[in-house]
Amino acid sequence: MGKRMRRSELVHAVVHSPNFDERALPLTMLVLHYTEMKPIEAALGKMTSPEAKVSAHYLISEEGVVTQLVPEDKRAWHAGTSYWRGIRDVNSASIGIELDHPGHAGGYRAFSDAQFEALVPLVARIVEDHNIPRANVVGHSDVAPARKIDPGELFPWDRLAGYGLCLPRPEKLELGDPFQNDGAFMLALERFGYDIADPAKAVEAFQRRWRPELIDGQVDQQIGAILFQLLLDRDRGIAR
What we know:
Layout: H1 7-10, E1 13-14, E2 20-22, E3 29-34, H2 40-47, E4 58-60, E5 66-68, E6 74-76, H3 90-93, E7 94-99, H4 113-130, E8 137-139, H5 140-143, H6 157-162, H7 182-192, H8 199-210, H9 221-235
Parallel strand pairs: 1-5, 3-7, 3-8, 4-7
Antiparallel strand pairs: 2-6, 4-5
């Protein structure tokens, strides 16, 4: 990615949000969201309102303007009730980045190039500074599958993976169905890190992230093969 950019070069504005407290866990995750609010001033207003009690560390406009709202050493209130790989206080363990976007409720569309180009160096600096594993760079839907679907199926995870900033979708898949039944798949999904309390929603979240071309909440051979390969790669130590 070339020369590493300094923090001051990546942040264009600072707007202080009162909605944060102290972390109770080490910082090991990064969670991506969309705002589902337009214009961006509405989202900024909500995340800085004491009454709303929500926030994120960063907000990136569709034009690529990066605004910091909460210091990285503080616990922003972005994930809500959530879970990932044994962690139930995701807010304490993560940095949250909100992407200015209308979301599914406002006319879901592709994310802008300017926004993505601002996101990449910010994520790169954060994961380097805090030694965050690629497997822990996730979407809101991954950590809250029963409640959330953002940033959604059009977020370019493949492009982010191309920079080594999140896990790529496995390309080489073993033939055949690695799981005997849906129950075995769900146990494996839980082992990978998802909350499976709502099985159909957990499957949808997995599909949204790893097989976005078909999201139906149904276990099938393809997503079984993808999950099996992800776990195999992790066990081999090549999917950090």
